[in-house]
Amino acid sequence: MPDKKTVLLVEDNPKILDINRRMLEKEGLCVMTAKTIAEARENVKRKTPDLAVLDIMLPDGSGLDFLSELRMLCETSNNHVCALFLTAKAERTDIMAGLTAGGNDYITKPYDIDEFRIRVLNFLNLVDSAKTRLNKNLRPQQSLSILSIKELAVARLAAKGLINKEIADRLFLSESRVKTCLSGIYKKLGISEKNKKRELLAVMLKKDSGSDEDDFKKFPLTVTESFVKHKLTKMEIEIAQLILIGLRNNEAAERLFITEASVEKKITAIFKKYNTKNRSEFLSKAARECGMFQK
Question: What does pTM read for this prediction?
Answer without folding.
Answer: 0.49
